[in-house]
Design a protein that fits this description.
CATH architecture: 3-Layer(aba) Sandwich
Order of helices and strands: HEEEHEHEHEHHHHHHHEEHH
Number of domains: 1
Strand order of the largest sheet: 1-2-4-3-5-6-7-8
Radius of gyration: 18 Å
Strand content: 15-25%
CATH class: Alpha Beta
CATH topology: Rossmann fold
Number of strands: 8
Shape: globular
C-alpha cells in the first residue's frame, strides 16, 4: 500500500533530477509543455517550511501544459542534502539564482508558498535580472509581525524564540515531531479543509525527516526561519520591485494572519491581492484548481502581448 502511495505522487511531480550546488546534492524537477515557444515564460516553484517539490503535485502538470515549470527542493528540505551549515533566506536565494543561471537563463516567474514566497520576494529584490513576475501565497513578514507585538513584550518573545530554537531542545523533540500522527495534527492547523489532508500528503511531509542528518538540519532550519531579520520583510523590499506581483491568501490561514495581507498593497502599486474563502496556509495544495486557474489567468493577462 505504501509503495503504491509513493509511486502515485512521484508520478505527478515531473522529471526529477539531482544537481550539485556548492558540493551539496539538491533535488529539482521540471515539466516541459508539448508546445514550447520563445514567448513561453518559465516558472520556478518554491515550497514552504517542511515541504518539498512533492507539495506541488497538484500544480506541476497543470501549469506545465502552458509553461516550462521547475520546482526546487531548497537545501535542507525534501530530497536535497541535509547539509551541516547555517541556513538563511539569503542562502536559499543564492541557490535559486544559481539554479536559474544554470538551467533557465531567461526572466522567470517565481511562485512561492510561505517561506518559499519570502525567498521569491527576496530573490526578486536581490537579482532583478532573473525575475519577470512574482506570485506569493501566505507571505510571512518579520517587520509586520514585529509591529503587531506590543513593544514591552518584544524582548520576552525574542527570549522564548531563542529557547525554542535551542538544539538541546529541538533535537530530542525532532524524533517526536516527525512522526506521521504528529505531522497530521500539525497539518490540521495549516489546512482549513480536513478532506485535503490525505495519507499522500502526510507521506510527502514525513519522508524527508527520515534522511541522514535531518535532526541536526532541522534545528538549523528552524533557527533560520525564526531568525529572519527585519530587512528581509516585504515592507522593506516591495517598494523597490518593478515587476507584476500576485499575492494569494487563504482567509482561514492560522499561521500567517490574513489581516496583514491588505497592508502589502500600500507598498507596491503593481501588487494584486487574491483572497480565497475557506482556504488555509497552503492554497496551492488545498484548492489547486482555483489556484492553478488564477495563476494561468494572471500570467495571460500580465504577460501576453496585446494584438
Amino acid at each position: 500500500m505504501i509503495g503504491n502511495l509513493i509511486g502515485n505522487w512521484q508520478q505527478k511531480i515531473g522529471n526529477q533530477r539531482d544537481w550539485i550546488w556548492h558540493g551539496w546534492q539538491t533535488r529539482y524537477t521540471f515539466v516541459r509543455p508539448q508546445q514550447q515557444t520563445s514567448q513561453t515564460t518559465p516558472l520556478i516553484l518554491l515550497h514552504g517550511f517542511g515541504a518539498s517539490i512533492g507539495h506541488w503535485r497538484h500544480n506541476l502538470e497543470v501549469l506545465g501544459q502552458q509553461h516550462m515549470v521547475y520546482a526546487l527542493d531548497m537545501l535542507g528540505w525534501g530530497a536535497s542534502e541535509k547539509a551541516p551549515i547555517n541556513y538563511s533566506v539569503d542562502l536559499w536565494v543564492d541557490q535559486v539564482y544559481d539554479f536559474w543561471r544554470t538551467f533557465i537563463r531567461q526572466p522567470a516567474i517565481l511562485i512561492g508558498n510561505s517561506l518559499g514566497s519570502l525567498v521569491s520576494l527576496t530573490a526578486a529584490a536581490k537579482y532583478p535580472q532573473m525575475v519577470k513576475g512574482v506570485i506569493m501565497m501566505s507571505l510571512p513578514d518579520p517587520s509586520l509581525e514585529q509591529e503587531a507585538i506590543p513593544p514591552g513584550l518584544r524582548p520576552l518573545v525574542r527570549g522564548i524564540k531563542s529557547i525554542v530554537a535551542s538544539p538541546f531542545l529541538l533535537k530530542p523533540l525532532f524524533k517526536i515531531l516527525r512522526k506521521p500522527s504528529v505531522v497530521r495534527n500539525w497539518v490540521k492547523l495549516a489546512y482549513a479543509n480536513p478532506e485535503a489532508i490525505s495519507d499522500e500528503l502526510v507521506e510527502i511531509l514525513t519522508a524527508p525527516p527520515q534522511d541522514r542528518g535531518s535532526a541536526r538540519a532541522f534545528s538549523a532550519l528552524f533557527r533560520a526561519t525564526i531568525g529572519i531579520n527585519l530587512q528581509q520583510g516585504a515592507k522593506a523590499m516591495l517598494p523597490n520591485l518593478s515587476v507584476p506581483i500576485l499575492l494569494i491568501w487563504g482567509e482561514k490561514d492560522r499561521f500567517v494572519p490574513p489581516a496583514i495581507a491588505p497592508q502589502f498593497i500600500q507598498y507596491n502599486s503593481q501588487l494584486e491581492l487574491l483572497n480565497l474563502a475557506n482556504v488555509g496556509h497552503c492554497p496551492h495544495d488545498e484548492s489547486p484548481e482555483t489556484v492553478n486557474q488564477s495563476i494561468l489567468e494572471w500570467i495571460e493577462r500580465k504577460f501576453t502581448p496585446q494584438t
